[in-house]
Every structure is written in C-alpha cells, then in structure tokens.
UniProtKB/TrEMBL annotation:
The gene is birA. SUPFAM superfamilies: C-terminal domain of transcriptional repressors, Class II aaRS and biotin synthetases, Winged helix' DNA-binding domain. This is Bifunctional ligase/repressor BirA. One of its GO terms (biological process) is protein lipoylation. Residues 18-37 bind DNA. It comes from Candidatus Fimicola merdigallinarum. Biotin binds at S89, T90, N91, Q113, R117, G118, R119, K184. Belongs to the biotin--protein ligase family. Its EC number is 6.3.4.15. Acts both as a biotin--[acetyl-CoA-carboxylase] ligase and a repressor. Keywords: ATP-binding, Biotin, DNA-binding, Ligase, Nucleotide-binding, Repressor, Transcription, Transcription regulation. One of its GO terms (cellular component) is cytoplasm. The keyword ATP-binding applies. Coiled coil: none annotated.
Length: 321
C-alpha cells in the first residue's frame, strides 16, 4: 500500500487528495492516511493541506530498498538490495549471506551502523541520514592472490563516481582511502573467506561521508564530507547508483583476466600519494618519497639513501612540510 501511495505522490504535480488516492486504489481515506503516516515515519517529506490534499516535497533524501531499486542501473551489483534502518555493520550482515546462499551482487545498505569498522579495527562513524553505509557480496572465480586488487578497484570507483556527481577534486590516498585535500570522505574495508586456491566470497564494505555537517573533535582535522566541501546536499541514492555502476564495470573487467595493469593509469591520475614525502608504517617505519604505482597496485617508494622499495601492505602517512 505504501509503495502504491508513494508512486501516486511522485507522479502527481502539486497536491492530490486522500479521496482521489483512495478511489484510484480502491481503499478508504483512513487507509490512505495510515499509509501517509508510515511514509512520513520513514522520513518522506509529505505536506498535508486541508482542502488540497498531499504533496511530496522533491528534496526528500530517502534511502530504502524501493528507492534504491527504482534508481539502480546495474545488472549484477545490486540485483538484490537489502535495506536496514540500523545494523551493527553491513559487512557483518553480508558475511552472513556469504556463509549461506547469498548470491553475488547482493548489496546491504543501512541508514545507520552502530559498530561500523575501518581498517585495523578502527571505528567508523556512521550516523543516521548523513552518509552511505553499504556492503557488496562478491563470489569471483579467481585466485585468492588476485583479490586484494578488488579493494583498489573499489577506491577508483568511489573516486570517479564522487567526482561525477559533485564535481569535487576527489582523489585516492594509497591504497584505498578516498579524500579531498587530505581529508577522508570514504573508507573501504574488504574481507575475504577463502581456501587454498579458491575464494568462497569477498565482502566490499564502503562508507561515504555524504551530508555530514560536522565530526567529533578527535577526527575533525582528518575527516570531511561531500556536503562540507561542496556546500550542497547530495542525493545519496544518486551517488550510490553511480558508485555501483562504476564498480560493476570495473569489477567485471578486472575478473576477466585479473590484470590490474589496465587500471594503472587511471589509478595514477587519481592517486594524490604519488610524489609525496611520506612515512611508511609497517614492520618498520621510515621516511620515503612515493615514486609510482606498479602493475599490481603496489607503491614504489624511494628512501633517503636512493634505494627503492615496493610497499604492498601497511600504511603511509603524508609528512607535513
């Protein structure tokens, strides 16, 4: 009932009375009022005026299964979308799907996460109404050794989609943090279940700060949002569609031959870490200058003595000048 009422509101220019909606659907005005009340509770901005009826305000930014399905233009990624008002972590939900009979391309989206995680177990702030918090279930028929590049491809996809939607100079801090002017807007956490030579499933979790207006003091100098940077409200479902479209194209292209070299130039152009002086943080921490990205998506750095190293794990921290 709610979906039918919502479709009428969306297709009507101006106001439509409860009596007219009820007549079109063959139900009472009371039933329409109840459906409208539930839609309002979900966050839809519906104006009710005596003797005129109901009107859906255009600027509602609602995320739910139906809204996402209505806008998605993908074939594989998102062919089954599950929405939760609140979960501990979308990655946890998708891992459970992966352990059971969840199909490749399943996407779980949450309005809020109570225990969102970043890399190295760090907490990821994911409050209601402010961002995109979602995870994708993949079952690639590839060698597990080729799976890490999926994370880099996700970073490329978020970066390109965010640029397309906002026009902002979004870049990638190696390996997969999506940033604007050294402040993070997106974190990506990829988790895999595998056996020798075989992948059971891969979960790609993505969190994007979309319409956040502020951050806690302890991260305010390292985090930002698309709204803060653009001074505009961004339609989250539009951004989600663009990210999933871009990721689907890149993912399907990559798993054909697991050749990351064809993404190398695109990654290079988006990567703000190249040519930066950094501290490489791993088993040992040392200063270096980032020279390039190799065909496997690994970082090539030059130490102060002129020797070069390939960095394939750990983190890099930009050194302040």
């Amino acid at each position: 009932m709610q979906e039918l009422v919502l479709n009428i509101l969306k297709s009507t220019d101006g106001y439509v009375s409860g009596a007219e909606i009820g007549e079109r659907l063959g139900v009472s005005r009371t039933a329409i009022w109840k459906a409208i009340s539930k839609l309002k509770a979900e966050g839809y901005n519906i104006e009710a005026v005596n003797n005129k009826g109901y009107h859906l305000i255009d600027d509602s930014d609602i995320i739910n299964s139906q809204e996402i399905k209505n806008i998605l233009e993908t074939k594989l990624i998102g062919k089954n979308v599950v929405f939760y008002p609140e979960v501990s972590s979308t990655n946890d939900v998708v891992k459970e799907l992966g352990e059971n009979d969840g199909i490749e391309g399943n996407v779980v989206v949450a309005e809020k996460q109570t225990n969102g995680r970043g890399r190295r177990g760090r907490k990821w702030e994911s409050e209601k109404g402010s961002g995109l918090w979602f995870s994708i279930l993949l079952r690639p028929d590839i060698d597990p050794r080729n799976a890490p590049m999926i994370t880099l491809i996700a970073g490329i996809s978020v970066c390109v989609a965010s640029r397309r939607v906002t026009g902002l100079p979004v870049t990638i801090k190696w390996p997969n943090d999506v940033i604007i002017d050294n402040k993070k807007i997106c974190g990506i956490l990829t988790e895999m279940s595998s056996e020798i030579g075989n992948i059971n499933y891969v979960v790609v979790g993505i969190g994007v700060n979309v319409n956040s207006e502020s951050f806690p003091d302890d991260i305010s100098d390292i985090a930002t949002s698309l709204k803060i940077e653009s001074n505009k409200n961004i339609k989250r479902k539009v951004l989600l569609n663009e990210i999933l479209k871009e990721f689907e194209n890149n993912y399907l292209d990559y798993i054909k031959d697991c050749d990351f070299s064809k993404f190398r130039d695109k990654y290079r152009k988006l990567c703000s870490t190249i040519n930066q002086e950094v501290n490489v943080i791993g088993r040992e921490t040392y200063p270096a200058t980032v020279i390039d990205i190799n065909e496997n998506g690994e970082l090539i750095v030059e130490k102060s003595d002129g020797s070069r190293e390939v960095v394939f794990s750990g983190e890099v921290s930009i050194r302040k000048r």
